[in-house]
Amino acid sequence: MRKSITLYGMTFSLPMAIWQVMFFLAPLVFLIALSFWSVKNFRMEPDFNPDNWTRVLGRAVFWQAYLRTVILSAVAAMVASVLAFPCSYGIAFKLSPTARRWAIFMMVIPFFTSYLVRVYSWQIFLSDNGIINAALARVGLGPFPMLNSDFGVMVGYLTLCFPLVVLLQLFSLIFVDRTLIEAAHNLQCGRLRTVFEVVMPSAKVGLVIAALFCFILTFGDFVSPLYLGGGDPPTLSILITDTTKSGQQWPRAAVIALTMIATLLCVAFAAVSYAYRERGR
Amino acid sequence: MSPHNRNQWIDWGLKLYILLSFAFIFAPIAASFVFSLNVDRFPSMPLGGFSTIWYEAVYADPLVWEGLRNTLVTGVVVSLTATAIGFGAAYTDFRYRFFGKPVYLALALLPPTIPVVILGLAMLAFLANIRLSGEIYSVIIAHVVMCAPFAMAIIRLRLSQMDPSLEAAAWNLGASEWMAMRHVIVPFCRPAIFAALFITMAVSFDEFAVAWFVSGLHETLPVKVLGFLQGQVSPRINVIGTFVFLVSMTLVVLAQLLLMKRSAAPKAAGKVE
After folding, report:
1. Transmembrane segments in this chain: where (chain B) (predicted)?
2. pLDDT value at A146 more than 90
């Protein structure tokens, strides 16, 4: 490996560095500055004013939204992990290699379909005279209100995260040492106990990372809480879109965004250190 | 697992569960396709008659065409730029070791982990401050930030299958660095480069949140869909959704075929003539 800086090397390495510093890092740093700007007569002015922070953090509405968002995302991470596990476990251990490859391919497809269209489609399923309630009415049940509720939000969140959680779980389950499982069976360890005490600890990193990604994705999503959950009470992401689009209160939106980033960093740090912690035995 | 430990019931139960999972994933996609061909404005069971009126309505809507044009321009420019930048970064990671490389890689790979609302707000505020917001190129700038990491990851994976001494061998045989790049590295990466072009285009094609923040009046098609979603019920969303699905799937399948060809003949492609 040559160490000197050459024109050749720069040609390939600099574009990414320049682009991401200019248009990724700079906007995020600018967000910090913006949160201290002041708004006078509907115009933003550069300033060093902690007013936005005290205003936003002093309001009960903000903390209600904060709590609601954290709880919704935490529940989504748990529900998605629990529901995805039998699926990824089945794909990893019960399918032939060919079927497994197809299953993985099918799991990738949703990433390239419009999330908006799928959410709209769920409205067709979940509304009071939608597909599900029509089917239930035929057997004399319902109608159950499912749209504009936390249940609707969860369906949307699962639409967003479920395939990713399955894939991330799957990639760690595939690499679980099969001889460990066989050893457990030979030692008369029951099926469920093998899953809980052999498979899950071996795949711990992937399982935790999958839940973490689900938390991050749902934490920033404003589509499901708005169009399947009704948007009231709002989540943090809805607060940001409302505050941004309804005028010049961008500095306050910046405060909300920075609070979200801080929260995500804490959660990510906690999750990663938990994932890589040695089992204390 | 050894055969005597297999329980048929559990196996079939799990397989059924996998099928149910796929049903959950594909139900909304299938429903949007079915209802795009349904005559009724308000979706309900049983289905009304078969009809293509909603396709005609979308076809006749100049706003949709404008959105489509913006989406296509953005998608093409973004995929070319993001793939070029991503290729450079992947090659840098493959070949060089330098001080601050972890920071470089973090900058290159982190954007997809930042929630899109936050990214959108930051981009809008920043671009507005330097008078670059509300234009098509604002969307392009933002989408390159979001897509370049994907291009880099795809091409980096391909490079990791290459023997690093191949490049050194070309130098020893008298090739300059540029010639080795042209005759060894680029041909070896070609399938991954095309895959990256298609994938980044598909990502840009579907992205609505950041585009919604920065596009101003130059809305892309997904941003228009977001607008429809805020308005009244309209099967037009299903029509556009079906169209976008078909285009994205074509791109993804093309990318997948290119990557499969890679794994079928990994050695042959690396040969230097």
Report:
1. 12-35, 72-91, 103-130, 136-155, 192-217, 237-259
2. no
Looking at residue B38, what DSSP letter applies? Answer: B
B234 lies in some domain: yes
Residue range(s) defining the domain that contains residue B255: 55-264
Answer for the pair A58, A136: CB distance below 8 angstroms, yes or no: no
Burial of B110 (0-12, 13-18, 19+ CB in 10 A): middle
Q: Is B251 on the interface with A (CB under 8 A)?
A: yes
Least confident of A189-193, A208-212, B112-116: A189-193
With 60 as the cut, is the pLDDT of residue B252 above it? yes
The one-letter amino acid code at A269 reads F
Please check whether residue A121 touches B, CB under 8 A.
yes
Of B15, B245, B248, Cβ closest to residue A94: B15
The 10s digit of each residue's pLDDT in A193-222 is 888 888 888 888 889 999 999 999 999 999
Residue A39 forms beta bridges with which residues? A44
Residue B16 exposed, middle or buried by CB count within 10 Å (0-12, 13-18, 19+):
exposed
Cα–Cα separations (whole angstroms), residue B228 to A136, B58, B106, B212:
29, 12, 37, 13
Give just the sign of the alpha carbon dihedral A212, A78, A92, A178: positive
Residues 6+ apart with CB under 8 A from B96: A1, A9, A13
Rounded Cα distance, B147 and B202, in Å: 10
pLDDT tens string B161-188:
888 889 999 999 988 989 999 999 999 9
pLDDT for the residue numbered B228: 82
CATH superfamily of A61-276: MetI-like (1.10.3720.10)
Q: What is the rounded distance in angstroms from the CA atom of residue B21 to the CA atom of residue B256?
A: 23
Interface contact flag, B237 A117, Cβ < 8 Å: yes
- Are A159 and A151 contacting, i.e. CB atoms less than 8 angstroms apart? no
- The CATH number of the domain holding residue B67 is 1.10.3720.10
Q: How far apart are CA B217 and CA B206, in angstroms?
A: 18
In a domain, B3, yes or no: no
The label of the residue with tokens 């995260």 reads A161
Bridge partners for B50 per DSSP: B38
Of A126, A89, A72, whose CA–CA distance to A207 is shortest? A89
